[in-house]
Protein 1
Amino acid sequence: MKDKVIDITAYIGRDLKSRIAVREFRDKISNEQRTTVKIDFGNVSFASRSFMDEFYNIFIANADMNVELINLSAEIEVMLDAVKSTQHRSPKIANKLSSNDYDIKFSSISEANKYLEALPFS
């Protein structure tokens, strides 16, 4: 089957701003049951970072769908590259951040309040 070219502005408009719009767009495409699509950004005026982050996670990083982006402006390419660069955290850093070494447990709210009140703030 020939790849379908989808003009994203026909579904969302020229200004791509919200994460919700990405999810609604995905739902519309999913209803067509296509696994390969070309998404045309030719008529897009603006794309926010939050939109592109959600778009990346739902479409680009999704192994279930083969997506090709066409007619990206230089500004949108820069935004997409910025989003891509924040998606892959070093495993060493991720392990450190998820470590339980920094967890503090309290048996009551008053115990937590006492701990917080004792912290030195300069």
Protein 2
Amino acid sequence: MTHTVRLLLLLATVAFIASCGKSPVTSSAPSAVPANGGVRLEWNPVPEQNVTGYRVYYGTASRAYLQPYGQGLASTATTFTVPDLAGARRYFFAVTATNSLGKESGFSDEVFVDVP
């Protein structure tokens, strides 16, 4: 499955979950690249009208994020740079969508980056 198709599946799944509340999501991961001591994430927007933003979660172990669910790093854009990460480590990232009712989707698929 191509990266573009996987991202489109992410959007459809997150949009559905965002309108329903918290549920697990099995979908594509955002793209992630090292950027000046941090990591820049990018994803496609969720096409639902009631999506108000996104939350970014990260940590140094798979699915063990530093932010508790519901307290991810907030973004209204479809890009986010997590700054000042300690080097020579692998970091794992996932994104959720939030809607106007205060509901948050489940996590996207996870992506990891080795920060030099």
Protein 3
Amino acid sequence: MLDRFLRRLGYVPASSMRLIPDDGSQPSGPPPHQLHADGFDRARADGDALCAWHADGGGYHYAIGRDDWAPLAVAGLCLSGNDECRAWLNEALRSRVWIGHDMLDSWHGANRAVLNGFGIRIDCNKRPLRRASASVHEPEMAPLIKATEMAELFALTWKRYHVVSPFLKLGESAAYTALGMHHTVRLAAQANEHALDRVIEWLALWLEARGLKINRKEQTVYLPGYQALFFRSDAQMWP
């Protein structure tokens, strides 16, 4: 009634100023976790079990895997669907790459069906497990453990190596530097690094034993449907 009355007086309703279409559909375009996909040059990138990166002069470009290929570190922390492991993964990505919550939420949402607890879903090996002994080598032993056991081994080893200092600024005195390079401290750090390298290999063997393809050069596992996360930093920072 009011609309017809206003039209008789010569008023014409203005066009809608809504940014979101009236039918409720979302604006077109890539999701937040893939907004920076075009800027990543994989041919120039270095990488490890968590991400790949390269400089571009004004910052760094990062990629968390590639589409259909998840980093082994991501796979290891998502084997069992444990909430604390997911929190550790987010912590690693925020401290390493400075990724914001909105981009992480977008990435997790896109990969929930593929990643969350996938290790338990594929752990359907029914063959009897032989008793492990000192004579059994790692490549034979690693595939025999359960998904939850592999998840725990990986998560704890990852956490021991990637301990984040609670101090914003490290000590800089000569005495601090000398003690920080003491052989006991140095050997502890080297032991944690070696342990992580070994557990990443055990994880790769465990996944291969369940039929998954591994790219050892890029340290990724083939998980169809996985969506990579791309991020560009403006700040100068090293991975």
